[in-house]
Amino acid sequence: MSDPTKIVSPLPDKVDKADKKVTGIILAGGQASRMDYQDKGLIDLAGRPLASWVKQAMEGVVTDVYISCNRHFDQYQQITRQLINDAEPTQYQGPLAGILATAKQVDTPWLLCVPTDTPLITENLLASWINEVNLTANPTSYLQTEKQGHFLHCLVKTVDALRIEQQLQQGNRKVFDWLAAIGAKPWQVPALFHSQLMNINTPQELTAAGELLKKIHQV
């Protein structure tokens, strides 16, 4: 397992709340087939739902945090009152539908999207990313490590999110195809933060994340 101290880093310059132009979206609308079809965002990790850990990381860098979900709305409202569901929630159209639905509801020029199954992510990483991306001149971006692109971790211009509608109408739900079409650029994640992008896709990974969180937060 990665050294838990890699989760902790000096906090970069804070994103000035008065100047924030970003709405946060926690993507929690999947079926979680590898987790026995549990609602992944509500799975307990160290006494809290996965979505709650992600919301904690996002709160310091965005104006508001929405959760994109398709079921268990009462439970998600205990995490945030601001929920978004797809136009056809029972069809599980994928994360693009959740991003599009949120873009139609908010008035900020940017969206910060984080999937609910990366609960180790921290404000430090998100603040570093936003601070390094010029929100005036730069295009939509997504996180990239040496091993892979993390396409659902994306800092999105709202106008780019609205372009999802045409792609979905064509039956294409692939996130990378949308990112390529809008000219999105990768943001290279500093090595210090790589372990924060651990995905929780299996019970074994959930157990490993719980042990890591205990060492970090003493929960």
TrEMBL record:
Its cofactor is Mg(2+). Keywords: Cytoplasm, GTP-binding, Magnesium, Metal-binding, Molybdenum cofactor biosynthesis, Nucleotide-binding, Nucleotidyltransferase, Transferase. One of its GO terms (molecular function) is nucleotidyltransferase activity. Residues 24-179 form the MobA-like NTP transferase domain. It catalyses: Mo-molybdopterin + GTP + H(+) = Mo-molybdopterin guanine dinucleotide + diphosphate. GTP binds at L27, A28, G29, K40, D86, D117. This is Molybdenum cofactor guanylyltransferase. It comes from Spartinivicinus poritis. Its main location: cytoplasm. It is found in: Cytoplasm.
